[in-house]
Structures are given as structure tokens and as C-alpha cells.
């Protein structure tokens, strides 16, 4: 059976070029001594818990349906530039993380797995501060999932 696995990532700070990267230009960044830690361990259900929110149980079937709607919303955005449907689907507690999890499980062909997990997030990176908390949570969580299912070395 799986054991507890831990992943830690630092905060980032743009020194110059924060907006130039959008135009495929270089930027200079550094890491900060603030970290986001993710622990993953076996559980009976898919659960996300954190030091700032109550536990969130992920309903995989519901999320798969929402993922299908999100795919359609992105296609519509590509056609007509209307971002509102995408924004509405991404609204809600930890929705970006939930989509990261479902996309990772889908890519690994593990949507039907019986090996579920509890993902526990502890962060000292202030949310909404521009220090990369959203990227940190996604990167650390996906890395933890890959390690949990012994797929990390296949990807990297």
C-alpha cells in the first residue's frame, strides 16, 4: 500500500519582467523562503484539506462532468472570446486544484482507481500576493500525485 509522501515548493518573486513573459519575453525571478507543503496519503475518498479551509471531499463523477463543460467553455472562448463561462466554472473553493487533480488522474488513466488519497496542503505563501501560491499548489499537488502512483519517474 502507499505511504505518506511529502512535496514542498517555494514562493517566487519576479524581480523584473513580470508582464513581459506574457509576450514570450524573458524575466528574472527568484525563490523566497516561504513554502507550500503538500502531503498525500491513502484514504477511502479523494479529500483535499488545508491549513486555511475545511476538508473538501471530491466527487469524481461530478468533477468529470464539469471538466467536460469546461472543455466546451474553452472551445467557445477560442471561437468568440467570451471568458465568462470559463470563469463561472472555475469559481468555487479550490476549483483550479480540483481540475488539476482530475486532469492528472485522467492523463495517468486512473479515473477508476480504487487507491484514493487525502491531499493535505500547508502554506506560508500568502494567497493573492503575487508570490505564486496558485502555481505552487498546482505543481506540488501534481508532483505528489505522480509520486503517490509511482508515475513521477515516468514523467520526469
Attribute tags:
single chain, 156 residues, alpha+beta, Ribosomal Protein S5, domain 2
CATH architecture: 2-Layer Sandwich
Number of folding domains?
Answer: 1
- The CA-CA distance between the termini, in Å, is 23 Å
Q: What is the H-and-E element order?
A: EEEEHHHEHH
Q: Considering DSSP H and I runs of 4 or more, what fraction of the residues is helical?
A: 25-40%
- Outline type: globular
- Biggest sheet strand line-up: 1-2-5-3-4
Could you tell me the mean pLDDT?
88
Structural class: alpha+beta
Find the count of extended strands (DSSP E, 2+ residues): 5
Proportion of residues in extended strands: 25-35%
Q: Give me the CATH fold name.
A: Ribosomal Protein S5, domain 2
Uncertain regions spanning at least 5 consecutive residues? none
CATH class: Alpha Beta
Question: Largest beta sheet, briefly?
Answer: 5 strands, mixed
How many helices? The count is 5
| Rg | 17 Å
Structure description:
- With 156 residues, the protein is an alpha+beta fold.
- The protein has a single domain (5-155), classed as Ribosomal Protein S5, domain 2, CATH 3.30.230.
- It is built from five helices and five strands; from the N terminus they run E-E-E-E-H-H-H-E-H-H.
- The chain has helices spanning 60-80, 84-90, 95-107, 133-148, 152-155, and strands at residues 5-16, 28-43, 47-50, 56-57, 116-123.
- The chain has a five-stranded mixed β-sheet with strand order 1-2-5-3-4, covered by helices on one side.
- A hairpin with a 5-residue loop joins strand 3 (47-50) and strand 4 (56-57).
- The longest helix has 21 residues, at 60-80.
- It starts with a strand and ends with a helix.
- 22% of the residues are buried.
- The mean pLDDT is 88.
Amino acid at each position: 500500500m502507499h505511504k505518506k509522501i511529502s512535496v514542498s515548493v517555494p514562493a517566487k518573486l519576479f524581480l523584473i519582467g513580470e508582464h513581459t513573459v506574457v509576450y514570450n519575453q524573458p524575466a528574472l525571478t527568484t525563490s523566497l523562503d516561504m513554502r507550500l507543503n503538500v502531503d498525500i496519503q491513502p484514504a477511502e475518498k479523494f479529500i483535499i484539506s488545508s491549513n486555511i479551509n475545511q476538508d473538501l471531499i471530491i466527487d469524481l463523477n461530478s468533477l468529470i462532468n464539469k471538466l467536460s463543460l469546461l472543455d466546451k467553455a474553452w472551445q467557445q472562448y477560442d471561437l468568440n472570446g467570451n471568458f465568462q463561462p470559463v470563469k463561472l466554472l472555475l469559481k468555487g473553493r479550490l476549483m483550479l486544484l480540483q481540475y488539476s487533480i482530475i486532469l492528472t488522474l485522467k492523463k495517468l488513466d486512473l479515473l477508476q482507481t480504487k487507491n484514493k488519497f487525502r491531499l493535505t496542503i500547508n502554506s506560508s505563501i500568502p494567497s493573492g500576493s503575487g508570490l505564486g501560491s496558485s502555481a505552487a499548489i498546482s505543481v506540488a499537488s501534481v508532483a505528489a500525485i505522480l509520486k503517490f502512483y509511482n508515475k513521477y519517474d515516468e514523467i520526469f
